[in-house]
Design a protein that fits this description.
The chain has two helices and eight strands. It is an alpha+beta fold and 119 residues long. The protein has two domains: 48 residues, no CATH class; 63 residues. It binds zinc ion.
Length: 119
C-alpha cells in the first residue's frame, strides 16, 4: 500500500511508510526531532524499528486481543506459560511485543506463540 505523504525525515515519496511513535525512535533520530510529540511518518530506510513494526503488524493481522497463547517470560525453554493476549502487538525498545495475562510487562513476540489460533 503506497502512501501519498513523503517521509518526514528524508522526504522520499510513497512506499511502505509507517507512523513511528517518537518515543520508540533511536536516540540519534529522537534528538533531531526533540521537540516533536506523537508520531513521525517514516520510510523503512529512516525507521530502524521497521522490521519490528512489520512483525507486529503481521501478528496483529492474525492474533486479535484475546488470542490464547503460550509464552516464555524469560529464556524460551520448557513448556512456557499459558495466557491470553491483552493487547495488540507494538514495538517496545526495538522489539515487537505484546501484553499477555499473568504478566505485567510486555513480552517479545519471539517469546509468544499463538495456541490454536483461528484459521
Ligand atoms: Zn525516509
Amino acid at each position: 500500500m503506497s502512501n501519498p505523504r513523503p517521509c518526514e525525515v528524508c522526504d522520499r515519496p510513497s512506499g511502505e511508510h509507517v507512523n513511528v511513535f517518537v518515543n520508540e525512535l533511536d536516540v540519534e533520530t529522537r534528538e533531531r526531532y526533540g521537540g516533536r510529540a506523537g508520531f513521525l511518518l517514516m520510510c523503512p530506510g529512516c525507521d530502524r524499528t521497521h522490521e519490528a513494526w512489520l512483525d507486529a503488524r503481521a501478528w496483529n493481522a492474525r492474533c486479535p486481543v484475546g488470542t490464547p497463547v503460550r509464552y516464555w517470560p524469560g529464556v524460551r525453554e520448557g513448556e512456557g506459560r499459558q495466557g491470553v493476549t491483552r493487547s495488540l502487538a507494538w514495538v517496545v525498545s526495538g522489539h515487537a511485543s505484546v501484553l499477555v495475562t499473568g504478566q505485567s510487562g510486555s513480552v517479545a513476540l519471539s517469546h509468544v506463540e499463538p495456541v490454536g489460533a483461528p484459521a
